[in-house]
Design a protein that fits this description.
With 848 residues, this protein is an alpha/beta fold. The chain has 31 helices and 33 strands. It has an 8-stranded mixed β-sheet, sandwiched between helices. A 7-stranded mixed β-sheet has the order 24-23-22-21-25-26-27, with helices on both faces. The structure holds NADPH dihydro-nicotinamide-adenine-dinucleotide phosphate and ligand LTNE7NMQ. NADPH dihydro-nicotinamide-adenine-dinucleotide phosphate is lined by residues 487-493, 519-522, 569-572, 574-575, 592-594, 622, 626, 653, 679-680, 682-683, 815-816, 820. Ligand LTNE7NMQ is lined by residues 626, 652-654, 680-682, 688, 693, 814-815. Residues 42-313 form the Aspartate/glutamate/uridylate kinase domain. It catalyses: L-aspartate + ATP = 4-phospho-L-aspartate + ADP; L-homoserine + NAD(+) = L-aspartate 4-semialdehyde + NADH + H(+); L-homoserine + NADP(+) = L-aspartate 4-semialdehyde + NADPH + H(+). Residues 488-615 form the Aspartate/homoserine dehydrogenase NAD-binding domain.
Length: 848
């Protein structure tokens, strides 16, 4: 089952543990329940050095573990803060002492060791209880003695043992703290199981490592494992190099076939460019594996290409997703890296690397180039023009290698800037846009990477911040992805979805809109990879699953889109009560549903304020007059400085159709059932006949016109006899003939005066008398403007300061499938147009 296919799937997936895990879990359930640690598939959580730098950071990590882990998960840790740098510094100091034979340096060494020990001791005493503090301090002192011996007596042998201490201390401390405060835990030194065959190319002995890890893990205890270090086949300590802890986490995840790895760090995700220098960079919520790997290769400051290696196994059925999230703000959604559908594949980003070399040689031409490529894995190579781009660190090795072949080489300093995205090198439009954006930089060459996930421009000068911003702007300016959720797939919702494919094809503003959710009252189909709009209804019928509002809000909170629009085409008050949470999450709402806009004054004002303060947009033109632009007209008058004094008219398509059609030749109830069948009534036609629907509409318009009033301030004549008011909809429809006599009498009385009956809404504001508002059945002369409408038409009459003697009139179909669905599409286009102009607000959290 796909992870993001439906809300329900997520829940089911969490339950889908293997039988061996169930066995593991059987005897830990009690502890887990006590510690609020829910059951789910194995996850690896890795905490970087900055996330464990201080006692405060470690406490934050503890809370993340409490909230997110269960006992069979694995925690991988880096050394606290800058401990590894300090250990490196000690080592360098000793090397210099040896070379220079200086006495002061040995004092300096003693002092540096003391400082390091003090720093660790302080973390221990600040965090642990007295008993554990005592024990850990004893162990720390032993380690410090050992460190001093290594540094002073046997340094050449113990370089990696020295460096390994940071992770050992960090794992030991976190595990002790977990034991005290969260759950049983044990710390594991990865050198006790992780065997790397060859230190330089980091080939993991998977079978042996996995077997040894199985032995080391103690079921019923949360394992805290050291990152960064391992042993080689001779049993000697080795490290996994720069950002090795991330790599450790993904290796360990592959050893236990984990479902997820989360890298908790001090940045809140992967951005479309380095957000420290590109303010308009947007977070990439979902990155396909291959693209992420390419980004890591080409200089992304958070991702490192090798981190992804253990997770990308084309031969394996198992897919582990990698998350990057901030331990400083765990609620913020980070970036997920894994296998995704088309939408995630549209993301583009820009990255750069300075201080590189362009190496030119005949050895890089044609078939010969393959050898150089295999040996040096250059940043890019052009085997027709005979050049490759390498790091400065590779220069000597490359020169020596070519010298041994008796071939000459020239080097030239260069930089690169690249646009990265799924198979971008195959896309002429992207290459052309990239080239255009680079014009001023006069690139030496443009090269597509081997995997086609990047186009690399080789620059004669270092890449400047200005250039990076220009290129990023050009490449990503229309790349805001908008998710669309449609709630309500009844009469209007169905038509809305039928119109959607053609709208997406022809309206430019909808270019980045993706249908991702469909909801009825009980079922939901959610797919972050997009739902095929041409088959929306049938996919919903086949795949939708039960859901509740909590699951819906949870998904809305986690959704991977830059913007999310919910179109509410339900008649449900309950659904409208979710708006406040949606607005708090920055979700935009388009409503045909009238409940929210006609709710109590306090609730309505609160909604308006919540939407405003979260930059959520909310449109509801179809709540009154279906597709007629009445809401827009009133907004426009008000915003332009006019003041409205009267609003009146026929606001119900149903009642317009009924009273325009009703001439006594057939029973009123027959016409009512006919209107219901045509889809021009509310789902329950008593909402129309009771006057409530018109009352709500008048309230909505009066509020739009700037008046603060409530539903109770509008007198409402209910046309449903009391005996029919409390019935179910079906029972009411079965007894609809009980309406006939009342309307027959009312009609014949009006006709006898040469008049007609119409259900009219009237609102008036007078400086002296204040506000008066009512909706009722009126007897009107046949010549009245409200008396001669095409059945189903609405008419809105507005008097204002500017329209005093001759009121403004808007008239036309005010209900029905096509016009209402059309009106909703008009709102959708308007919101998408506004969102296209919205600048992303990037929170920069710093970079490791
Ligand atoms: N008809 C018209 O001309 C106009 C209608 N409107 C408004 O449009 C809305 C829809 O009307 P219409 O299509 O005729 O109604 P329908 O009764 O035909 O369809 C309603 C849909 O909403 C779903 N629904 C009900 N409650 C919920 C809920 N809590 N969460 C999610 N989905 C829910 C229903 O699902 P399920 O099938 O599971 O019950 C159904 O799919 C109403 O608010 C109406 O006032 C506005 C302007 C004009
Ligand atoms: N029942 C309503 C539908 C639209 O709001 C009407 O008839 O106007």
């Amino acid at each position: 089952m796909k992870q993001e296919n439906t809300i329900l799937n997520k829940v089911n997936e969490n339950k889908a543990v293997s039988s061996s895990e169930i066995a593991d879990n059987d005897f830990i359930t009690e502890v887990a329940a006590e510690n609020k640690l829910a059951k789910h598939a194995i996850q690896v959580h890795k905490f970087g050095g900055s996330s464990l730098a201080t006692a405060k950071c470690i406490k934050r990590a503890l809370e993340i573990i409490r909230e997110n882990c269960q006992l069979n998960d694995i925690v991988v840790v880096s050394a606290n803060g800058k401990t590894t740098d300090r250990l490196f510094a000690l080592y360098s100091l000793v090397e210099r002492t040896i070379v220079e034979h200086t006495i002061q340096k040995s004092d300096e060494l003693t002092q540096a060791i003391d400082e390091l020990a003090k720093e660790q001791a302080q973390l221990i005493t600040e965090l642990l209880n007295a008993n554990n503090t005592k024990q850990l301090l004893l162990r720390l002192n032993k380690d410090i003695e050992q460190l001093t011996t290594w540094l002073t007596a046997d340094i050449a042998q113990h370089h990696n043992d020295v460096l390994a201490l940071g992770e050992v201390w960090s794992a030991r401390l976190l595990s002790a703290l977990l034991n005290e405060q969260v759950c049983p835990s044990n710390s594991i030194d990865s050198r006790d199981f992780l065997v790397i065959d060859n230190e330089h190319s980091c080939v993991v002995d998977t079978a042996l490592s996995a077997a040894q890890l199985r032995q080391r893990r103690q079921f019923g205890k949360l394992a805290v494992i050291t990152g960064y270090i391992s042993k080689d086949s001779r049993g000697k300590s080795c490290t996994l190099g720069r950002n090795g802890s991330d790599y450790s986490a993904t290796i360990i995840a592959s050893l236990v076939a984990a479902g997820n790895v989360t890298l908790w760090t001090d940045v809140d995700g992967i951005y479309s460019a380095d957000p420290r220098v590109v303010p308009s960079a947007r977070k990439l919520h979902r990155l396909p594996n291959g693209v992420a790997k390419e980004l890591g290769r080409l200089g992304n400051p958070v991702l490192h290409a090798k981190t992804l290696l253990p997770l990308i196994n084309p031969l394996s059925e198992h897919h582990t997703h990698l998350h990057v999230a901030s331990s400083f703000d765990a609620q913020v959604i980070g970036t997920e890296i894994g296998k995704f559908g088309q939408i995630a594949k549209q993301e583009l980003s820009v990255t750069y690397l300075n201080d590189l070399l362009l190496a030119q040689s005949v050895s890089f031409i044609g078939e010969a180039a393959a050898k150089a490529k295999a040996e040096f894995s250059p940043i890019c190579i052009d085997n027709q023009k005979g050049f490759m781009v390498i790091t400065q660190g590779q220069q000597k090795a490359l020169s020596d290698w070519l010298a041994s072949h008796d071939v000459e080489i020239t080097f030239k300093p260069v930089a690169i800037i690249a646009t990265v995205g799924h198979r971008v090198a195959e896309r002429g439009d992207i290459r052309a846009r990239f080239k255009r954006s680079l014009k001023a930089a006069k690139p030496l060459n443009l090269v597509g990477s081997d995997n086609n996930h990047s186009v690399i421009a080789i620059l004669p000068e270092p890449c400047s911040i200005e250039l990076l911003n220009t290129v990023h702007h050009e490449m990503t300016k229309d790349a805001r992805h908008i998710g669309l959720v449609v709630a309500g797939m009844g009469n209007i919702g169905e038509r809305f979805l039928e119109l959607l494919p053609a709208q997406l094809n022809k309206v430019y503003a909808l270019e980045n809109l993706h249908l991702v959710g469909l909801l009825s009252s009980k079922k939901a189909l959610i797919n972050n990879d997009g739902i095929d709009v041409t088959q929306a209804a049938s996919l919903f019928a086949q795949e939708a699953q039960s859901y509740d509002h909590e699951q819906l809000i949870s998904w809305l909170t986690q959704n991977p889109y830059d913007e999310l629009i919910v179109v509410d085409i339900t008649p449900s008050e309950d659904f409208s009560l979710l708006y406040e949470q949606m607005f708090s999450l920055g979700v935009h709402v388009i409503g045909a549903n009238k409940w929210a806009a006609s709710s109590s004054t306090a609730h309505y004002n609160n909604l308006v304020n919540t939407a405003d303060s979260n930059n959520s947009l909310c449109l509801g033109n179809t709540t009154v007059g279906a597709g007629l632009p009445i809401n827009y007209a009133i907004d426009d008058l008000r915003q332009s400085g006019d003041s409205i004094s009267e609003l009146s008219g026929i606001f119900s398509g149903t009642l317009s159709w009924l009273f325009e059609t009703y001439d006594g030749s057939s029973n009123f109830s027959e016409l009512l059932l006919n209107a219901l069948a045509q889809g021009i009534t509310e789902p329950d036609p008593r909402e129309d006949l009771s006057g409530r629907d018109v009352q709500r509409k008048l309230l909505i318009l009066a509020r739009k016109a700037g008046f603060e009033l409530a539903l109770e301030d509008i007198d409402c004549q209910n046309l449903v006899p009391e005996a029919l008011q409390a019935l179910s909809t079906n029972d009411f429809l079965a007894r609809a003939s009980e309406l006939d006599e009342y309307f027959a009498t009312a009609l014949s009385e009006a006709n006898s005066k040469g008049a007609c009956i119409r259900y009219v809404a009237r609102f008036q504001h007078n400086q002296e008398t204040g506000v008066s508002a009512k909706v009722s059945l009126e007897v009107l002369p046949q010549s009245d403007a409200f008396a001669n409408l095409t059945p189903c038409d609405n008419i809105f009459q507005i008097s204002s300061h500017w329209y005093q003697d001759n009121p403004l009139i808007i008239r036309g179909p005010g209900a029905g499938r096509d016009v209402t669905a059309g009106g909703l599409h008009s709102d959708l286009v308007k919101i998408c147009q506004q969102l296209a102009h919205k600048q992303s607000q990037v929170k920069i959290k710093g970079i490791n």
